């Protein structure tokens, strides 16, 4: 992303035109009076008539009612029936137009560009005109439902705004007339959106309205207003209800404005938000990690509350509420999942956990029952036993709060904690310095999870208001109180301390309004008020940050910054009112385009997004976050239990930083002994905006964790207090440390390149011997001497003869390559060209009858014929006793391949030497273990050529490796066996032939000449050589050769950095270490990703920076490192996400360089946008909800 200046347009010209066409449509409920192109007048007239139709039809009923010709109810029914007929007519026209035009609507995918389509109109009621004005419904059920609702809405709306009713409410005809006119505007917008054409709402929760829920949003709010009015009509004169009706009639007038500003939730968001608020504050639960869990937990909690109301005994109510509160605060589904599908060890752990929870449940029930039976007063009063428990709760609260504050880097988020270790680069030293804090954390854990719940249960069980539980409010209050004790012990402790403090402050005096509520309702109100107060403070801090930084940050200062600052200052009461309203509704504070223009976003669940948790935009870097997520989750589990991250509640956001990795952590759910989190990983390829904010994050963490421990008073403050990020703690996490280096002076050194050839042969020999042993690991030494086994003749005679199958005998001498690269830089193949070659390809060398007869005498396998086709006739070939089906098919050759040098036909290739291929004489009977497959010995290379390279073969290293592997395979192998293996010339020649053939095939016959060639071979993009096709056909050998080359380059890298290998023992141990603890390859390979997920200790990759023209080495080291974690302003995150949702889903401002995504070092705007759920955000990794036991 190119970082732009502060005066970049909020919307580009195209989007501005689009927005100003869409926004009037939203205000009016759907009519499109601004099209952007010329349209006939009847298009606008038809829309105006349809918009005013409900008013006209409702006016008929209103007029008849005013003339005393109809009663109010009959007038409302008449208007409703007329509107029902009109709605049926509109839907019939829409269906007719759809059939005439033959348009097929794709279900679930709304036409986003419908506002931009230019329609050619031919007639005022033509199909295209009807289709444009009233597109119709996608589902037949919605046609019926929306039509019926349109009639009901018009009828009830007529009744709601009758002039007689309005005059009776306000005792003023003028006011009633104004309310009447404006109310019908609201009704017309709702009717048009429901039955004609649905407007795009600014309050958009889902990216797609698959089931056409949006048209129901406006009618639902109107029905709510009408329901209150009907309650006022039929319940008699209730002053509070009449006042509410008067206020709502006034609010009814501004509903179109509220819909246009996006302050009222769509139905899906409203439903989820309402359930979540009722579950948390009314039933004592927690926000859930998924919509299904929220629905299930809400249903169970309501059932418990209803059962509590009907239990006759107060003791039974106490025991039942306490037991169900404890059980519902546990994550039973997770526990059952582990027990049914986990390992035996996991089941044992779950068994101990079950016993612990069972003991806690029985102990709490016994305590509640005894306290209630013996110490509960007959009336609501603060007796001495309960007062003593109240003092204990205050002490516990102070101690737990103090122990929590000393766990983090800051106290109150402002003062540096002198007890927190800083400047610790070594993880072990950090852990040792943190032992004291861990002890304090363990004490806090015991007090919070074991002592406090029992103290709070004692306080509730002894309360006198328990005797009055058969009222609805007290039943709800005490059911919630007994549950929140377990669900959120820290919050419950705060609420009880507040209640106790109020009672102690009141003393013997009575507080009639407060005391009559009962302890349960008092706790409910305290919990609601404390939550809203904390939200208000967080939103106010966020608003001040946006307001102040719009002027202080030069790169954020727009031309309108001064005007907006003055406007907010002059309208400060209005700004505070917006913040208070958003806090009361638990709705996000929406800064429009992230400017200091604040709106109240529509209420939505804490998760902010409708989709399931775990969606992401994965890429190759996602595996690094996936690998660290498990270890990070374990570290978070300990941090939550100790309190290092402060008060952890659902909706909290944390940011973790390690090297170039940014981890976004969101708390989804919290209960007794568990916490559910979502871990997201942000992009590693940092853009300029990402880099600016990442640099500020590093500065904030450095000030908190890297400063010297002894600081002066002026340095002991959090100078970044206004930042959205507040550092909390450094967590030890097992993660890959990424080190990159430029290889200039290493890969381009001629000495190193010459050494690379020798290292390659040594690594290849080591891999060949090791691979042979692994392939035959199931055949131990001396297996032929076991019971039931028979010795082969070669074993009894001493030297072993290995007989190979017929597939090893190659009839065709010239193996044609399957691919040829014209950009080949191989210098070894030029000598094989000849101008006299046949353009149509070389002819296969024919074999004489004598040669075939000689080969046939070596074994019956030569005479075996290949399978013939059904119905075919076998024909004798030019060879004796051989069918044509026994010959391998000739491989096709392409034009332009190297020709065969006619002058070199005097030598026979290894593939033509029958005696060589049919058997190999080993002088040691154990050499079979180290033999190589027959296909690896058929390289199309002349023996004289390999003989010239024989001096390159590391014979001493071969003998040393052979002896080490022989001793490692069998402990009882004597030195004589090792010596015999080393002296076996046949075995040595076999490995020399294969190793040197691989050397020539990779173009390393002479020393590697250039870094580019080394890089190509390392990447597997080997330039064409004479034996490359043979090597490619033997896939296993090719992989071993490529692996050996990569090992040799890693040896080059290590020796250039640490010095040369001094002994064969050191080289052998180094290669063993490579095989066991390293993955050496390319970042783009699948094996690299698998190695990261398998947590290989080390990974190495060679890269090429095309822009700089340099070669780079990358080393990943798995080790325990400190990941710095800080708390984000949750309300700031919700506000920016609310703006993102409005800007992309409504304004469709998806410009990658828009103002609202530019870097903001205080608000961390770019990082926050990245962390949003797709399709609006783009995290490269997002975990499923992770259940963390943190008892």
UniProtKB/TrEMBL annotation:
Subcellular location: Membrane
Keyword Ion transport: no
UniProt cross-references to Pfam families, sorted A to Z: Pecanex_C
Domain Pecanex C-terminal: 1015-1183
Membrane topology: Multi-pass membrane protein
Coiled coil ranges: none
The keyword Membrane appears for this protein: yes
Transmembrane segments: 42-64, 76-98, 143-163, 175-195, 247-273, 294-327, 354-375, 387-403, 564-585
Family matches, as InterPro entries: Pecanex, Pecanex_C
A GO cellular component entry from the record: membrane
Keywords in alphabetical order: Membrane, Transmembrane, Transmembrane helix
Top-rank lineage group of the source organism: Eukaryota
Name the UniProt record assigns to this protein: Pecanex-like protein
Species this protein is from: Esox lucius (Northern pike)
Gene, per the UniProt record: PCNX4
């Amino acid at each position: 992303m190119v970082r732009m200046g502060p005066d970049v347009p909020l919307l580009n010209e195209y989007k501005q035109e689009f927005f100003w066409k869409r926004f009037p449509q939203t205000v009016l409920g759907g009519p499109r009076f601004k099209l952007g192109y010329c349209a006939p007048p009847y298009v606008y007239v038809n829309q105006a008539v349809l918009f005013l139709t409900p008013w006209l039809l409702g006016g008929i009923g209103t007029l008849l009612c005013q003339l005393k010709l109809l009663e109010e109810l009959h007038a409302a029914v008449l208007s409703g029936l007329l509107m029902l007929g009109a709605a049926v007519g509109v839907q019939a026209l829409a269906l007719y137009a759809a059939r005439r035009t033959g348009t097929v609507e794709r279900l679930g995918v709304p036409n986003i560009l419908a506002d931009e389509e230019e329609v050619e109109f031919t007639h005022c009621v033509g199909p295209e005109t009807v289709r444009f004005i009233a597109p119709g419904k996608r589902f037949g059920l919605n046609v019926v439902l929306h039509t019926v609702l349109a009639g009901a809405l018009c009828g009830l709306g007529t009744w709601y705004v009758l002039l007689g009713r309005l005059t009776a409410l306000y005792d003023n005809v003028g006011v009633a007339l104004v309310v009447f006119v404006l109310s019908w505007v609201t009704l017309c917008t709702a009717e048009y959106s429901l039955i004609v054409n649905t407007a795009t709402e600014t309050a958009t929760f889902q990216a797609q309205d698959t089931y056409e829920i949006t048209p129901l949003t406006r009618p639902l709010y109107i029905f709510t207003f009408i329901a209150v009015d009907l309650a006022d009509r039929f319940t008699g004169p209730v002053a509070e209800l009449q006042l509410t009706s008067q206020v709502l009639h006034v609010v009814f007038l501004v509903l179109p404005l509220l819909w246009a500003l996006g302050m009222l939730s769509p139905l899906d968001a409203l439903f989820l938000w309402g359930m979540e608020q009722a579950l948390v504050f009314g039933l004592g639960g927690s926000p859930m990690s998924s919509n299904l869990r929220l629905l299930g937990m809400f249903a169970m909690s309501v059932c418990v509350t209803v059962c509590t109301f009907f239990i006759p005994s107060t003791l039974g109510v106490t025991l039942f509420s306490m037991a169900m509160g404890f059980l519902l605060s546990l994550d039973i589904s997770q526990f059952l999942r582990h027990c049914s599908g986990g390992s035996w060890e996991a089941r044992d752990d779950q068994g101990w956990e079950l016993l612990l929870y069972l003991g806690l449940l029985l102990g709490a029930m016994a305590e509640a029952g005894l306290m209630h039976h013996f110490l509960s007063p007959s009336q609501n009063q603060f007796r001495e036993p309960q007062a003593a428990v109240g003092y204990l709760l205050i002490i516990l609260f102070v101690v737990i709060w103090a122990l929590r504050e000393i766990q983090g880097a800051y106290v109150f988020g402002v003062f540096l904690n002198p007890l927190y270790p800083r400047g610790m680069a070594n993880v072990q030293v950090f852990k040792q310095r943190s032992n004291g804090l861990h002890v304090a954390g363990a004490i806090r854990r015991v007090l919070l999870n074991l002592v406090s719940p029992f103290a709070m249960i004692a306080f509730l069980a002894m309360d006198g208001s328990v005797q009055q539980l058969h009222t609805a409010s007290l039943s709800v209050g005490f059911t919630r109180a007994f549950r929140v004790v377990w669900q959120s012990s820290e919050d419950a402790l705060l609420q009880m301390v507040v209640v106790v403090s109020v009672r102690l402050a009141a003393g013997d005096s009575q507080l009639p309004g407060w005391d009559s509520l009962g302890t349960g309702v008092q706790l409910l109100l305290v919990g609601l008020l404390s939550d809203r107060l904390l939200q208000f403070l967080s939103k106010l801090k966020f608003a001040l940050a946006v307001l102040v930084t719009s002027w202080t940050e030069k790169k954020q200062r727009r031309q309108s910054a001064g005007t907006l600052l003055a406007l907010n200052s002059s309208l400060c009461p209005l700004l505070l009112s917006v913040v208070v309203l958003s806090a009361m509704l638990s709705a996000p504070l929406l800064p429009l385009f992230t400017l200091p223009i604040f709106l109240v976003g529509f209420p939505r669940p804490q998760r902010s997004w409708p989709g399931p948790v775990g969606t992401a935009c994965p890429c190759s870097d996602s595996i690094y976050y996936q690998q660290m997520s498990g270890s990070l989750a374990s570290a978070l589990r300990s941090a939550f239990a100790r309190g290092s991250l402060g008060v952890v509640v659902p909706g909290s956001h944390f940011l973790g930083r390690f090297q170039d990795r940014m981890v976004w952590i969101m708390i989804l759910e919290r209960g007794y002994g568990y916490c559910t989190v979502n871990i997201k990983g942000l992009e590693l390829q940092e853009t300029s905006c990402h880099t600016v904010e990442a640099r500020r994050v590093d500065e904030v963490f450095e000030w908190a964790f890297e400063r010297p421990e002894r600081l002066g008073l002026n340095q002991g403050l959090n100078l970044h207090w206004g930042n959205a990020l507040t550092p909390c703690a450094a967590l030890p996490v097992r993660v890959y440390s990424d080190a990159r280096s430029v290889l200039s002076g290493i890969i381009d050194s001629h000495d190193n390149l010459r050494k690379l050839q020798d290292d390659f042969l040594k690594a290849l020999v080591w891999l060949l011997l090791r691979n042979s042993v692994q392939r035959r690991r199931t055949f131990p030494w001396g297996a032929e001497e076991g019971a039931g086994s028979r010795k082969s003749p070669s074993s009894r005679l001493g030297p072993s003869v290995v007989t190979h199958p017929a597939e090893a005998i190659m009839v065709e001498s010239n193996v044609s390559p399957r691919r040829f690269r014209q950009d080949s830089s191989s210098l070894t193949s030029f000598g094989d060209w000849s101008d006299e070659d046949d353009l149509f390809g070389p002819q296969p060398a024919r074999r004489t009858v004598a040669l075939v007869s000689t080969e046939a005498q070596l074994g019956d396998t030569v005479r075996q014929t290949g399978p013939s086709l059904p119905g075919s006739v076998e024909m004798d070939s030019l060879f004796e006793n051989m069918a044509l089906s026994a010959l391998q098919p000739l491989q096709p050759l392409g034009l332009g391949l190297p020709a065969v040098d006619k002058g070199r036909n005097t030598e026979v290739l290894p593939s033509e030497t029958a005696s060589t291929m049919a058997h190999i004489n080993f002088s040691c009977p154990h050499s079979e273990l180290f033999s190589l497959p027959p296909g690896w010995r058929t390289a199309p290379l002349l023996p004289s050529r390999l003989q010239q390279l024989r001096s390159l073969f590391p014979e001493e290293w071969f003998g040393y490796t052979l002896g080490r592997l022989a001793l490692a395979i069998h402990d009882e192998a004597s030195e004589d066996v090792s010596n015999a293996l080393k002296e076996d010339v046949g075995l040595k020649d076999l490995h020399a032939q294969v190793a040197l053939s691989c050397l020539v095939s990779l173009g390393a016959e002479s020393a590697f000449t250039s870094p580019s060639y080394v890089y190509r071979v390392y990447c597997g993009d080997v330039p064409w050589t004479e034996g490359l096709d043979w090597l490619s056909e033997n896939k296993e050998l090719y992989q071993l050769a490529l692996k050996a080359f990569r090992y040799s380059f890693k040896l080059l890298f290590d020796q250039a950095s640490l010095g040369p290998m001094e002994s064969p023992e050191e080289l052998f141990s180094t290669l063993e270490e490579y095989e066991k603890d390293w993955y050496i390859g390319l970042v783009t390979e699948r094996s690299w990703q698998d190695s990261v997920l398998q947590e290989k200790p080390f990974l190495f990759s060679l890269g090429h920076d095309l822009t700089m023209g340099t070669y780079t080495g990358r080393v990943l080291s798995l080790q325990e490192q400190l990941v710095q974690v800080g708390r984000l302003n949750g309300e700031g995150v919700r506000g920016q996400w609310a703006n993102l949702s409005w800007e992309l889903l409504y304004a469709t401002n998806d410009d990658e360089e828009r103002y609202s995504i530019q870097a903001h070092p205080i608000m961390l705007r770019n990082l926050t946008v990245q962390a949003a759920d797709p399709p609006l955000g783009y995290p490269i990794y997002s975990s499923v909800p992770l259940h963390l036991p943190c008892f």
